[in-house]
Specification:
The chain has about 110 residues and is an all-alpha fold. The chain has one domain. It is built from five helices and no strands. The protein is flat.
């Protein structure tokens, strides 16, 4: 950590690095889940603002445009990996299998 502190000397960044190093896997997963959930809800809200009122919040749309493509890229990579490993005949089955993998991973980590 001292090496990181000598490279990065900003209180906010140092606080986040310290948290990341000390946080449990469950805390990190909850933070990621909350981020994804919030981003998807914000995307839905901005879509509704635009569709129904013709207005939007510029900062929120900027955040969505910067974050959502990365999330979609990662999701596509998961789907492609699952398709390459197993022979699924529908997208729904891929999603069910990915969900099951997450559940099994969480159960294995609690042992």
């Amino acid at each position: 950590m001292n090496k990181l502190n000598s490279i990065v000397n900003h209180p906010f960044v140092n606080k986040k690095i310290n948290w990341l190093l000390k946080a449990s896997k469950e805390e990190q997963e909850k933070l990621a889940f909350d981020f994804y959930k919030t981003l998807l809800l914000e995307t839905f809200e901005q879509r509704n603002f635009i569709e129904h009122n013709g207005i939007f919040l510029a900062k929120s749309v900027d955040k969505i445009l910067l974050s959502l493509p990365l999330i979609i890229r990662d999701f596509r990579a998961l789907v492609i990996k699952e398709l390459s490993q197993k022979n699924h005949n529908s997208f729904a089955k891929v999603l069910i299998c990915l969900d099951q993998n997450i559940i099994e991973s969480n159960q294995n980590n609690k042992i």
